[in-house]
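Researcher: We plan to redesign the surface later, but first we want a full-length starting point. Tokens attached.
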């Protein structure tokens, strides 16, 4: 049994925080897991900036409502789901992901959750499990699945390298240069063909 594990942001939808940085006019928020490997550190820094500017969950959700999947992402996902099981494993949060899942045809996603105060301030976040992408892939393998994984950022490398086949997709030049052993693709057709060969 195969299962394909995909990252969400940068792979199927644009980076939420980059979109929000543009919308809010706060350029510091363009920093993502492509730039900062320590997700906990990155999120605490982001929440500090939101607090400093008096921005809450609804402000971020208003931006997310305007985000559409990357062109071709839904067709890619639909075709992939006709061939095998697909699971999106993301470090994003339920409160961010739900409207995007609707636009992608409700694929299964494992992600985290935000802690939000009555005044709409995002006060913290709860990670589903430590090192969630790698941990999830290992758990799937422990119950008989062979995993194929793809992502674009530092926090995807664990699940990519632990899988029977793993690919970088729309990644940075630095991540590609640091991981020359991993095949890297820029189009959904290339990624789909590589996954088909691995099934």
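Model: Full-length starting sequence:
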């Amino acid at each position: 049994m195969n299962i394909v594990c995909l990252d969400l942001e940068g792979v199927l939808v644009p980076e939420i925080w980059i979109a929000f940085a543009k919308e809010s006019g706060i350029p510091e928020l363009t920093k993502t897991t492509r730039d900062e490997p320590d997700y906990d550190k990155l999120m605490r820094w982001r929440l500090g900036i939101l607090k400093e500017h008096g921005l809450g969950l609804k402000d971020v959700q208003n931006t997310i409502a305007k985000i559409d999947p990357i062109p071709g992402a839904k067709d890619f996902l639909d075709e992939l789901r006709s061939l095998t099981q697909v699971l999106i494993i993301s470090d994003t949060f339920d409160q961010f992901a739900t409207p995007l899942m609707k636009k992608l045809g409700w694929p299964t996603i494992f992600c985290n959750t935000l802690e939000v105060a009555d005044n709409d301030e995002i006060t913290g976040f709860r990670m589903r499990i430590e090192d969630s992408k790698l941990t999830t892939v290992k758990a799937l393998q422990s119950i008989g699945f062979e995993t194929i994984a793809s992502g674009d950022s530092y926090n995807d490398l664990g699940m990519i390298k632990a899988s029977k086949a793993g690919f970088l997709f729309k990644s940075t030049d630095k991540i590609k240069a640091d991981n020359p052993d991993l095949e890297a693709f820029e189009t959904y057709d290339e990624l789909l063909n590589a996954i088909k060969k691995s099934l």
